[in-house]
Each structure stands twice: as structure tokens, then as C-alpha cells.
Amino acid sequence: MSEPLLQIKNLQKKYPIYGPLGKLFPPVNHMRAVADVSLNVYEGETYGLVGESGCGKSTTGRSVLGLVKPDSGEILYKDRDLTKLSDAEFRPLRSDLQMVFQDTLSSLNPRSRIGQLLEEPMVIQNIGTPETRRQKVLDVLTMVGLSEEHYFRYPHELSGGQVQRLGIARAMIINPRLIICDEPVSALDVSIQSQILNMLTQLQKKMNLSLLFISHDIGVVRYISRRIGVMYLGTLVEEAETEELFSNTLHPYTRALFESIPDFKKKERKVSLSGELPQYTDDFQGCVFHTRCPYATDKCRQCAPEMKEVKPGHRVACHLMDK
């Protein structure tokens, strides 16, 4: 396999928990949003990152773009650690790394017309002349399924699906190599979801894009991804190629996640989870999933498992694999 386009190594991000008097005193503890996450994204592939809401998926994606500053770990792109770059050093790489937000409308200036919004990244990166930038915008609008008449409209005049197309167009306008898609279809109707996913797949093949696709919908992730990483409570618990993961599910949380997919043919679920997510603080011990795992042992409660490769390309963090 070729060298990864993006490498995330031992990424850590914590947030302080303050007492009743707030920030007048030092934090009483820290919440682990991302804990020791390591993954690779290769040229031209879609890597799906899936898990429950609040498991650290978006924090991981935003860390790649510098929108969140991690506490430790490495994010390597073109052999450069993005976590150690200043804003001035990071700016030239912005043309290679872009993001599609979950709520695209809130990320756009409501006072700017669509044409101006799409031209702005090219102006910042000093790309082209006013005439070539305008033509580039018109070409990209057509590419994402919008028409030239949208050039003079405002974002609030678009439907939900059109707004997401606009978000994809804004990410693509400066020909990036990697796009972070943070829940890009979660707020859309099922029919619109399929249109957006098909469009992303076509654009990826046409432009040789790499996608880090973040979603809590395992069905959507299965449809678009070549490899999938499953996150729980800030930790990557299983990773494999898509068909391998679905045909040979190993981690108990991944099994429970797949069992949650609606299927009216199932009379009962083999694996079901009870209880709420625990607080993953500095004093938490053991496997992150042991409080809800039906197979948890004393070893699971005492020490966290390491991520191990059980088959080529299939990694799992679970003490049950030792047996």
C-alpha cells in the first residue's frame, strides 16, 4: 500500500471541568474528548469515521484543519506536523485541506451573495484574475448540481440540499486534496442524502479526492467508505475495510452499533446496550466500553486494551481478542 496522505498519531484532546465557582479556581478534572486516536487516510480513498454523538469524531476532524488545537499527538500531511505550524505556516496548506460542515448555512456570511462566497477562497489564496475566478465559480456550481442563476442569490434563499451542495462547492473551489466531511447529510431527507452521496462519489473519482467522512449513520458510512473506523468515547475501538468490518465484526460496541440499524425482518437484537455514556475523565480506568459491555471482565475494568491488528488491515482494541 502507498504512503498515507494524512497520518494521525496518538491524538489527544482534553477539556477542563470546573467546580461550582467556575474559572475562579483551577479545573477539578479534565474530560477526554479524543484519547490516543491513530489512523491513516490514503490518496483517493474515503475513510469513514462513525460513532455515537459526542464520541470525538468532529473534534478529530477539526483538529486536522487547526480549528481545534490538540493537547498532544501528531497530524502529518506532506511530512509536516500540522499541530506544530503557526497560522502563517498553515495558510499555504489551506488550499489542500478543506471542510464541509454539518450546518453549512451557519458557516456562511448571510450578507454575501453565493458568487462572492465562492470567490473569496481564491482571493485569499491569490488564485487567478477576477474573470477566471468568476468562470471557475460558474463551473463548480454546475459541477455540484446548481445553476448559474444561483451566482447572485443569497444562502438563505436555498433549500437544505442546495445549501449542502454550496458547502461542497466552497470546499472544492480551490482544488483540495483532502476534504473533511462533518455530518454533511445528517439533516437532509433520505432522497436528498442519496443525491449528495452520489455526487460526492462522482466528484471524488473525477478529482482524485480523499475524504474523511464523519457520521453517526452507519448505513451512510457503509455506502460511501472504503475503510471505516469506529469511535467510542473518544477512542478508536475498531478499524477495517468496509466489507471486512460488516462480515467479520469483532468489537462488542461495533456489533451493537450494527444491530441498531433498522431492520423489520429482525425479531430481536442479539446485542443491545443499556445505560448512558460515562464521563471519560482523567480518573477513568479500564476499557472505555466496559460500563456498557455485556462481556466485560475484571481485566476490562482495570486496564485499557491496546489497538492490535488481528488480520491484515483489521485492528481492534478489545481484551476479548486475546482469547
Explain how this protein is built:
The protein has one domain (about 5-95, about 175-320): P-loop containing nucleotide triphosphate hydrolases (Rossmann fold, 3-Layer(aba) Sandwich). The protein contains ten helices and twelve strands. The protein has helices at about 55-65, 85-90, 115-125, 130-145, 160-170, 190-205, 220-225, 240-245, 250-260, 300; strands spanning about 5-15, 30-40, 45-50, 70-75, 80, 95-100, 180, 210-215, 225-230, 235-240, 310, 315. Strand 4 (about 70-75) and strand 5 (about 80) form a beta hairpin. The model has no long low-confidence stretch (mean pLDDT about 90).
Please describe the topology of this protein.
Elements: E1 6-17, E2 29-41, E3 46-50, H1 57-64, E4 72-77, E5 80-81, H2 87-90, E6 97-100, H3 114-124, H4 130-143, H5 160-172, E7 178-182, H6 190-207, E8 210-215, H7 218-224, E9 227-232, E10 235-241, H8 242-247, H9 252-259, H10 298-302, E11 308-311, E12 314-316
Parallel strand pairs: 3-8, 3-9, 6-7, 7-8
Antiparallel strand pairs: 1-2, 1-4, 4-5, 9-10, 10-12, 11-12
Helix pairs in contact: 3-4, 4-5, 5-6
